[in-house]
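From the pipeline queue, job 12 of 40. The input is one protein chain; the requested action is below.

Action: predict structure.
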Amino acid sequence: MWSIGCGFLCQYHMTILCLMFLRWEGRNCQPQTEALPGFTIEAPAEVTVQRGLCVRIPCNFTVGPGYTLTRDAIGIWYKGYNGDFNEKIVAASTDSSQFPDTTNGRFIFTGKVSAGDCSFSISDAQPGDTDRYQFRLEGPLQFNYLHIQPSVSVVDLKIPDISPTETLMADEEVTLTCTVLANCPGPSPIFTWEGSVNTERTQAHQLAHQDGRLSYRSNITFTPSPSHHNTSLTCIVTNKHGSANASITLKVEYLNKPDILPKKKLIAGEQVTLNCSSFGNCIDASSTITWAGNINIENVKHDQLLHSNSHVTYVSHVTFTPSQTDHNTSLTCTVTCKGISTNHSTILDVEYLNKPDIYPIKKLIAGEQVTLTCSCFGNCRETSSNIKWKGNINITNIENGQLLHPNDNATYVSHMTFTPSQTDHNTLLTCTVTCKGVSNKQSIILDVEYIRKSCLDPIVIPAVVAGNISILSLMGLRICWYIKGTRAVQEKGDTRGDSKLKAQDSDYENFDIDTLYTNSPMNASDINKTR
């Protein structure tokens, strides 16, 4: 009898125990894979989170027909449920002391139970968080949802992503971004950049996505140069549990700064060819090379020299004839490839001599010695410079000299002395100045004035003068004698006197100029010469 009663009692207790578990686990006392009608749960079966970051596990649940969720309903998440619900609680929808916080606030129940939301989040994920998690409903209605038990896996930090990775252009500023993706807000990691580029200009920020995820980002801004080509740039992401890094190799297309050769003094008036060359790895058939300056370009030729290591040298040859006005002017060569432009300028150093001047410019007198000066100004300074005169003149003396100026200029001077002759009239006289191969010259036409000699002998002229004086003297004496005689006749008033006077008058009338010439010291031939 006792045994029957005992057996009945044990069977009764087992029935009650099964009914109690039925409310928690379903129809059987063992965990089930199929939910009771109306009791459903939706949550991801597997979740992966990086160590030190956070993850949000979305979850929604329903209750069966005839059951209602009230404000008093409590949602609880258990870690690795093994039958003991009190020791494995990690998150609860209430802060009641009956559900102690065992994760230091890292697990947070984020859903609203009365609305059927059972979502929770894990921040600062740690390796010990790897496990399966089970949701249980407590309160007036109690039920253990076994159909889906999300599995959380904590992995090491993933390698961050660096973008963009396309080829960079030398001397063009660029911004690269290092990104770490997280499923929910949490402690921001620390970003560090390492490389040969300038790593001082960095900025960290966050970007929220529509799906609730969050991106932690760090931007680095720098200007690549040719030296950065094929170098490494590394982004390091660090949190308190560890670090991860990603590296890329920078591909920089570049053109070196051009060179203009040869670098030498140019000679005014002498044609020269200068070469502009630029080396780089920017290969483009449509690349261009341009020249800019005040020179008078006569010819331009372009070439490309391809190298075996995917590099190229762009070359341009410019031909021109420099002039004095080109001295100290700028000449620029610009090379452009795929939008990359680089240039180089040089200051032209042109040696020149101005056209010489010959002075004084005046009429020369034949037989009179004269000194002409040839002067030439320029920036060609050379002790061996020379000045030469060329012409049919009879040069007596030449003196050459230099007058140096403080601005690296000089005046070359030559003084040439000669005595022009009648045959030098309308002849060419040239002065040529030469310095370091630079020559310049000036020519003039000599204007020589000459006077014809008189046909009279120098001795005849005084004789003619003396003869004329003698004639005039005799004529004066004769006039005086005549006047005296006339007066004597008038005073005596006699016939004799009159007869004698008449005779004297007759003699005077017979006296002619030939008599005077005959009695003159000069003979007839001398008189003719005078005429």
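Job complete. DSSP finds five helices and 38 strands in the chain.
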